[in-house]
Amino acid sequence: MKKKARCAAQRALMLEKGDQMGLFVPSCKEDGSYDVVQCHDSTGYCWCVDDDGKPVRGSSKLNEQPNCTEIGKSRS
Fold first, then answer.
1. Could you give the C-alpha distances from 7 to 29, 32, 36, in angstroms and in order?
2. Is the pLDDT of residue 76 over 50?
3. Distance (Å, rounded) from C-alpha 13 to C-alpha 16?
4. Contact at 8 Å (CB) between 70 and 61?
5. What is one Gene Ontology biological process annotated in the Swiss-Prot or TrEMBL record (predicted)?
6. How many CA atoms lie less than 13 Å away from 1 in the CB half-sphere?
7. 18-75 pLDDT per residue, tens
C-alpha cells in the first residue's frame, strides 16, 4: 500500500467500526496521507506525526494543537 493511502485506509477502517467511545480516527490530507497534527477528540490530546502516522515523541498537548513545525526543527 502506498504511504499516501495509509491514512485514508486506516480512517476508513476505524469509521467502519462505528461510533465506539474512545475510538481514534486519524485525520488525513486530500491525497490520503496523514495530517501533521492528529487529535483524539474523546481525550482532548493532539500530537504531531511523521509521514507514516507515527507520533513524534514529546509533541503531545492537552486541549491545544502542538506547533509541529517548531517541534520538527528542534528534532533535526
1. 8, 6, 11
2. no
3. 5
4. no
5. cell-matrix adhesion
6. 11
7. 777 789 999 999 999 999 999 998 999 999 999 999 999 999 999 999 999 887 665 5
Rounded Cα gap, residues 33 and 28, in angstroms: 6
Quick one: cell of 65? 494543537
Q: Which amino acid is at 32?
A: G
C-alpha angle 57/61/62, rounded to 5°?
A: 140
- 17, burial (CB in 10 Å: exposed 0-12, middle 13-18, buried 19+): exposed
53 exposed, middle or buried (CB, 10 Å; 0-12, 13-18, 19+)?
middle
Identify the pLDDT of residue 33.
95
